[in-house]
Design goal:
The chain is α+β, with helices and mostly antiparallel strands. The chain has 2 domains: 33 residues, no CATH class; 106 residues, Quinohemoprotein amine dehydrogenase alpha subunit, domain 2 (Lipocalin). 17% of the residues lie in helices and 52% in strands. It has 2 helices and 8 strands. An 8-stranded antiparallel β-barrel has the order 1-2-3-4-5-6-7-8. It is elongated and about 85 Å long.
């Protein structure tokens, strides 16, 4: 072993250097401060509740989110207290690239026509608050919109 470490041949020096580099890499990967510096994206999975306000009205919303690597899906319930027990329900899909969230869904409130809606929101650093806007269109024209604030 002593001969391997003190030999002056180029091949032996390369072997010793390569061994040291590999050993350092293995040791570094075991230390908490020596990671690659990339942390996993925060996960939005769970129940979010909040309010959407616009046009002089407000509605209480609950969304159930499933986050699979930034691809979002789930269900929602929206309830406007001034309308009594009428609740709008449906499903959505979307994307999440921290801190940006985009959700798309259709909103149907018979006898009104079906609206194509989109939520654009930002999630805070603690990943427990979401705020942004809701826009709904009918035949390509904005017909409904407002601001939203959700928490979990």
């Amino acid at each position: 072993m002593r001969r391997l470490l003190t030999a002056n041949t180029p091949r032996t020096a390369r072997t010793v250097t390569l061994t040291r580099v590999l050993l350092l890499a293995v040791l570094c990967s075991m230390l908490p401060g020596c990671d690659s510096g990339t942390e996993p994206e925060p996960d939005l999975t769970g129940t979010w509740t909040g309010i959407v306000q616009g046009g002089g009205n407000s509605a209480n919303w609950t969304i159930q989110v499933t986050d699979r690597g930034g691809q979002l899906s789930g269900t929602f319930t929206a309830n406007n207290p001034t309308l009594g027990s009428v609740a709008l329900t449906g499903s959505f899909s979307g994307t999440y690239d921290h801190p940006s969230v985009v959700l798309s869904f259709q909103l149907t409130a018979p006898p009104d026509p079906t609206l194509d809606c989109e939520v654009r929101a930002t999630v805070n650093s603690a990943v427990d608050q979401m705020s942004g806007s809701l826009t709904c269109q009918y035949l390509g024209q904005d017909v409904l919109g407002g601001t939203l604030s959700f928490s979990r």
